[in-house]
Predict the structure.
Amino acid sequence: MFFHAQVVEHAAEGHGLALYYGGFNGSEETTAGVGHEVVAALDAAGLSTQRGGSPGTSISVTPLDWRRRLEG
């Protein structure tokens, strides 16, 4: 699972966080399984997720209350 700087900026603006995922063997079955595990973990943590039906679509965590880390 990963995300990049543009996705973080989008999330910080209040649009949710898109998470990308995949399996190491390139199989759609493996990728779908990883997606199911990620969604289950996020749901268990109390986060709301949306996911398209295809293994090639990202997982969206919305709504997301993005907060800047306090420094010091």
